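Cont'd.
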Amino acid sequence: MTWDWDYAWDSVPPLLDAFKVTLQATVLASVLALVLGFALALVQRVEARFFVARIVGAGAEFIRRTPGLIHLYFLFYVAPTLGLTLSALTAGVIALGVHFATYTAESYRAGIEAVPRGQWDAAAALSIPRRETWIKVILPQAMPPILAAQGTWVLIMFKGTALLSTITVVEVVSRSQQIGSDHLRYLEPTVLVGIFFLAVSYPASVLLRMYERRIATYR
Amino acid sequence: MEPSTPAVPAYAIEFAGVAKRFGDVSVLNGLDLQVTPGEKVAIIGRSGSGKTTMLRLLMGLERPTAGKVLLDGQVVWDEPGPLDMKRVRAAAKRMGFVFQLFNLFPHMTAIENVASGPMYAQGVDRRTALEKAHGLLRQVGLEDKAQVYPAKLSGGQQQRVAIARALATDPEVLLFDEPTSALDPELVGEVLGVIADLAANSEVTMLLVTHEMRFARQVADRVVFCDQGRIVEDGDPNTVLTNPSHERTRAFLNTILHPIPGT
Amino acid sequence: MVEALLSSVPVTVEVFVFGALVCVAVAVLAGLGRLSQRWIVRTVVGCFIEVFRGSNVLVQLYIAYYVLPVWGVTLSPFQASVAVLGLNCGAYGAEVVRGAILAVPAGQRDAAAALDFSGWQTLRRVVFPQALVIMLPSLGTLLIDLLKGTAIVSLVTLVDVTFTAQQLRLTGESTAAVYGLALVVYFVLASIVDVAVKYLERRLGHYRVHDATALEGQRAIVPGRAVGGL
């Protein structure tokens, strides 16, 4: 079977349409993951000695060790039995956002901890107050690598939105399979979707790497 | 008829017009040096004067930009010219190298480090290699540390293991790259002792890059002073270290011997 | 319900184990390929890595399962799953291997050269044993991601834990219980992988002084080293 250009070309507009949903899900899930992840990191740092932090830490570890696909199913199929009906997109965004919040939290934490202990000591030796130490000394050093790391998570979430197709969200992968089954021909739409993802991911990852290289030269 | 010159090469090591640049930085500038077999030569000079680069070129760890390097009359480098790694490797086989930062293999015990060259490069069987390594560890006074990993050894002990490792392949030439400058002062003595012992009791040709002037005087047959990528002064230790003819040598020795002005 | 779910564990484990074998083999080959002196090798391997990391694993699976047959390559669901998960994981692993090899200090290579080790001896006796210890923490994260990633094989009809959970839900079992149990199963499997990798870290990294602390410090979760976290 050879590549059918006409068919491929006709598939592009509906795929682009569905791609908007993919991007929408990516943005929403990213915002949730970045904000919730920050909160998680904060709780684990500030409350480090307390019980709450242990529970939160264990919960995050549990989420990191279990498949996102099942989190998706869990939220989508279990929530209604508890009287909480979420739209497929909402359930998907929440599941994805929470799943990745446990990862972004680690990146926040790792970024802060990567600042050498000596920086805190030096700030203390100069009697710089704690608040200023954070703002003027620690964060300026920690932020660039944290940004780079979170950027990579956003890219991974972008690819992860494909899973939303399994809970009836009509994003780009789901749309491609619909087109395929309508015409009994999966080749073109499926390959096109692969190219769509590549077309966004690759340039983005090149930009991220450039950013990483730029901040690396500061050190 | 004039008698023809003998075929036996007079020099163990020879640098002829060697230059080395790293990008825009010129490290060696037409360096010339001859070392006769069995000679112990100390190389002194400021940091960045190209001393370490000399050793690394000889060992084949760097490629010169121009000039010739010969080992025992055989060409190691002849630049610019086609790259011939075979002769570089052939030369490297005949030399041992002691690094400033030891470069022991952290995942091997002391004795495995010493035996690694014979075992992995020369194809000597494990038992023979370990036996020999044992003897060498005894020679550097670390017989009891044979089964210890480098991380558990002091810097001085690590460097002594590294010296034993360099000796294990029976080199004709030993190169020391500031072997004590990464050590705490109280550990310098034990390493210098091992090297002095070696210098006194073996026929091996030795090139020592060092900052220890007293040691250079005690161990070396000859001291050369390297400055801006060239040999500026060359002679017996007493002359070079106490009565140098060159102004730059004098200035250098002055800063070394009297690091704080006015003392 | 519990029995039904547990009876599908071997399928998940099989996909994981074979996928992991493919993953590690691909990661080592591609990681070394990225460091090759020949530009052609670097470029080809680089393209492989970018394509597999840049597009997404679900689409790759659909291509392997639905599209390849039209080109005459018919893979069973199991083969397609193992191949896609393994290659995808390997593409991420390549960067882990490459990074670990570069993290071995240059002095180690100098010392090996000074002792006249061949290129292969240097790699096998000096660089790789140390690189392995450096890469193990990231490799552990990667393998756990691979395990989680196996859930998608349920979408190409393999009867794994996830597929069975879906079936049980359709037969009217309590959804919360079904998915809760499935989560526990994956958590236990992932924890086994984690413990095994940590054991290896201790075994292979025994020569370092500050074992525990040094390794913990490196256990930062670095994205881009993960298959996708899902």
